[in-house]
Amino acid sequence: LIRWYQTTRRTRPYEISAGIEKVSMATKVAWDEAGQSVKNLYRLRPMQTYQPESELSSRYRVWRLFDDPASGRTAQALGTAMIGLICLSSTAFILETVPELDWVDETVWNMIERLCVAAFTVEFTIRVACCPDLAKFVKDPLNLVDFLAIVPYYIETLTSNDGNTSSSAIFRILRLVRIFRVFKISRYVTWVGVFNDAIMASAHPLAMLVYIMAVALVVFGTAMHYAERGRLDRISGAYLRADGTSSPFFSIPASFWWCIITMTTVGYGDDVPVTTLGRYIEARTQITITQPSVCVELLAMLWVQKIVVAMADAKAIPY
Length: 319
What we know:
Blueprint: H1 2-8, H2 18-33, H3 36-42, H4 58-67, H5 73-95, H6 106-130, H7 134-139, H8 141-159, H9 169-177, H10 190-201, H11 203-228, E1 231-232, E2 239-240, H12 252-263, H13 276-294, H14 296-312
Antiparallel strand pairs: 1-2
Helix pairs in contact: 4-5, 4-6, 5-6, 6-8, 8-9, 11-12, 11-13
């Protein structure tokens, strides 16, 4: 609330006690004097310097209008309009492939596409022209998504000589890239950013899970291959089971498919073991993959303990 008044008004309202501002200033001083290890631990950004609205340049105001939907009512309305265009473009892209909608004239889809691309182009151009730090702008992944949302249309328009572009593989790929527009919503919806921050904060636990699944994939996939591949038919060059049917576990990579389906508890049933050893390996796979979920709390406690020990030893935080 104090920061909002500092950026919109020069005077502090009488309802806010002056002591709160002193506490806020003391917090800033304590943060500036904190060690780098503490800052790394809490993953906090340095406090920004706030300026009154009247002292901001017109270029920065335009930048904040298009880049920060929470900066005001106009920015919020603009963000809502952009979300509507993103939904319209994505819906048209999906419905265009429905055979039951062949009666819709192709010019309708083209008009929707041109309208959305024009709006996205204007928005992206303004943000590029008004951004305060171009290097930081280029490194932002969301800006890359914005670029990929519009560039396929112009490439397709400039390189196509006739209207039948769907027959070319490269143009089908360009059309597929348009679906990246749905990721633009994360710029205008706050909770999507919170979700992204949660994913980034969980990078190490997720990496641990991927490592466990990768090891299990190699071990159990290899074991299932040698247990279920059967005998090699010299004439056909295929591995056959005892009943003469072709074995689905003819190679270790082919066994990976069974292992992934089993570990994710999907269980399509297209590849199943028939020998006693193969069934034991499948049961062992199912039991093993459930063990990490049982000790999640213990893994979290050990990870926190590792961070505390690293801080006590005055070493870099392992992030």
